[in-house]
Amino acid sequence: MLKKAQSFSIKNWSEDDQPREKLLSKGRTVLSDAELIAILISSGNRDESAVGLSKRILASASNNLSELGKLSIKDLMQFKGIGEAKAVSIAAALELGRRRNGSDALSRKRITSSASVFELLHPIIGDLSHEEFWIVYLNNSNKILQKQQLSKGGLTGTLVDVRVVFKNALELGAVGLVLVHNHPSGAISPSASDKELTQKLKTAATSLDIKILDHIIITEKTYFSFADEGIL
Q1: Contacts of residue 17, Cβ cutoff 8 Å, sequence gap at least 6
Q2: 107-129 pLDDT, tens per residue?
Q3: Is 196 helix (H, G, I), strand (E, B) or coil?
Q4: Which end of the chain is least crowded, N or C, by CB within 10 Å?
C-alpha cells in the first residue's frame, strides 16, 4: 500500500524551519530572500518545499531580486507549484519593494546633483523593458514639487508633448525641470533625437523663464547627464 504523499506546506515543517515563525521570533531581517518568498507562496510542490521552490525561482534570476522583478506572471507560472495566485503575490510584493525605493528617494526632497536624480528615478524606470519619459518639477530651491511620467513608449522611443510639460510646470509653479528617460537597450549615449528634444524643450522653457537643469538618461546600471557632460 502506497503511503500518502508528503505535504510540503509550510505549516507541516518543523517549527525551526517555518519562515513565518522565524520572522515573528527573530525579525524579518534574518530571513533569506528565499524564505521571504516562501512566506508569500506558502507551499511548494510534491517534490520540494516552498523554500526549495523559492530558491529555484531565485536561481533562475541569478539570485537577483531586480532580475526577478522582470519576470512576467507567465514566466513565474512555468515553475511547478506556482499557479496564477502565487505568481501574482510574488509580482505584487516585488512591485511594492520597487515603489518603496522610489518613495524613499523622494523623501530626500532636494535635487543636488545628477546622482540624486538617478537615485530618485532608477528604482522606477531603471529595469523596464520599454522606454518612459519623466519630468522632475522643482522650485527655486531645487526641492521636488512633483515627479511625473509624461509618456510611455516601446523598446526604442517615446513621444513627448512639449505643451503638457509646460502646462504642468505652470500649474505647479515650477521654476526648474529635470528631464529623465530610460534606455532599455542599455546604450548610455544620447541619440540625435534625444539631443533635439532637449534643445526644443530648452528653447520653450526660456520663453517662460523656466530652466531645464539637466536631462538624465538612465540604464539598468548607470546614467548619462547632459549637464555633467556640458551639452545642455
Answers
A1: 51
A2: 557 888 999 999 889 988 988 88
A3: helix
A4: N
